[in-house]
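User: Sequence recovery, please. Input:
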């Protein structure tokens, strides 16, 4: 199996980097091939822009989707984007590893998706959702938050963390991935006094053990459910009686 880990944290010694390293160790111990993309260390530019395209289809007006399709068809995408697409298409398993900042992923993750999930290459009108290019593959979000678990609960002061991650999971499902339930880590804080830091280190060490154990038995990891094409009318409205899996796609 090919595993791709995409790490998005600017500190090389962060707990996020540590979790990415743990996942790499677990999968390699099972005989899998693992590649890590460290977006900050690669200095990945998250901005989709006209300057990314050398041979514009339309030099008067920048249409990102059309330029992506044009450059994909002509094998002229930027080299780093081509490399990341190749790694994605080879991957059987994808892990996105990042901290939860301002109620979402760091901008570099969204920008990576904007630039790498290219129209024509990773999706088109015939290849979306359960018919997506990545069907048969699975993706996992492993995410850390500074807030306590209760604060990130559905009735918590900071709001439902899992729900706020749904747009990223939906985007991954849009290109065909099956989505594993995210692995959420709470209370990862810096600037603690010595005693508090030691207590946190002990707690996070147990988190790491749990994470490694779950990855080792990934076949039993539950998946996030999504509506399928047959749940929608020709106008793409949810059919009466179709199941609801998220407040984002629901009956009126």
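Assistant: Recovered sequence (252 residues):
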């Amino acid at each position: 199996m090919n595993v791709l880990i995409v790490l998005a944290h600017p500190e090389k010694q962060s707990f996020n980097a540590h979790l990415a390293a743990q996942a790499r160790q677990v999968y390699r111990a099972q005989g899998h091939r693992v590649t890590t993309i460290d977006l900050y260390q690669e200095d990945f530019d998250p901005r989709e822009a006209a300057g990314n395209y050398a041979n514009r289809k339309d030099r008067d007006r920048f249409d990102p989707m059309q330029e992506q399709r044009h450059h994909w068809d002509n094998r002229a995408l930027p080299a780093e984007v081509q490399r990341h697409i190749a790694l994605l298409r080879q991957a059987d398993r994808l892990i996105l590893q990042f901290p939860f900042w301002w109620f979402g992923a760091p901008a570099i993750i969204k920008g990576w998706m904007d630039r790498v999930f290219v129209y024509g290459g990773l999706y088109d009108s015939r290849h979306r959702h359960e018919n997506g290019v990545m069907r048969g593959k699975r993706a996992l979000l492993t995410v850390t938050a500074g807030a306590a678990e209760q604060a990130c609960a559905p009735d918590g002061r900071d709001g439902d963390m899992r729900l706020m991650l749904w747009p990223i999971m939906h985007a991954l499902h849009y290109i065909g991935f099956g989505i594993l339930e995210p692995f959420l880590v709470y209370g990862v804080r810096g600037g603690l006094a010595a005693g508090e830091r030691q207590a946190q280190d002990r707690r996070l060490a147990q988190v790491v053990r749990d994470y490694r154990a779950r990855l080792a038995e990934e076949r039993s990891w539950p998946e996030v459910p999504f509506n399928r094409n047959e749940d929608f009318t020709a106008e793409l409205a949810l059919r009466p009686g179709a199941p609801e899996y998220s407040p984002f796609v629901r009956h009126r």
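The chain has a mean pLDDT of 94.
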